[in-house]
Amino acid sequence: MVRSVLCLLTVALAFVPLLSAVEGGPKNKRGLCPSPGDYGICAHVCYADDDCQGANKCCPTNCGTICEPPVIKTKPGSCPDPNLHFKTCKTECTDDGQCEKNLKCCNSNCGLQCVPPEHGNRQTR
Q1: Does the keyword Secreted apply (predicted)?
Q2: In the chain, which residues fall in CATH 4.10.75.10?
Q3: What is the pTM assigned to this prediction?
Q4: Which of 15, 67, 87, 123 could form a cystine bridge with 56, CB 3.0-4.6 A?
Q5: Sign of CA dihedral 48, 49, 51, 57
């Protein structure tokens, strides 16, 4: 009897990470996870960003996962005025850290895009 209960419990726990996928899949929150330190909690506190409260992200430790505040990278320069042209709209980024090299994540007429920055006194985004 105990063996059956343990088996059933193990099977049920195996499906917990799949619940996010059934509900439309996990949604990545803005920002990046900090680098894991030398020590960490050896447990899986979360499986996806949606498991964490507020803006916190589900981040790896050396032997598990925990909810941590995201690292938001901001690069120098300001965003240029959005270009007026027609193309298929697609959001490429949510913050500068997702853009290559010195490109910034900026509003355009077509969502957030990685673009070369302008250098001056304008506000970002």
Answers
A1: no
A2: 17-68, 73-125
A3: 0.46
A4: 67
A5: positive
Architecture of domain 73-125: Irregular (4.10)
- Give the list of residues 6+ apart from residue 115 with CB closer than 8 angstroms, or none: 79, 80, 103, 104, 106, 108
**Could you tell me if 112 and 94 are in contact, meaning their C-beta atoms sit under 8 angstroms apart?**
yes
- The dihedral through the CA atoms of 74, 104, 59, 35 has a sign that is negative
Give residue 68's identity as a one-letter amino acid code: E
HEC-encoded secondary structure of 51-66: HCCCCCEEEECCCCEE
Q: What number of CA atoms fall less than 13 Å from residue 87's CA on the CB side?
A: 12
Spell out the CATH class of 17-68: few secondary structures
Q: Please report the pLDDT score of residue 47 as a whole number.
A: 94
- Which one-letter amino acid corresponds to residue 85? H
Assess contact for 45 and 60: CB atoms under 8 A: no
Q: Give per-residue pLDDT as tens, 43-74.
A: 889 999 999 999 999 999 888 999 999 998 88
Distance CA 41, CA 77 (A): 38
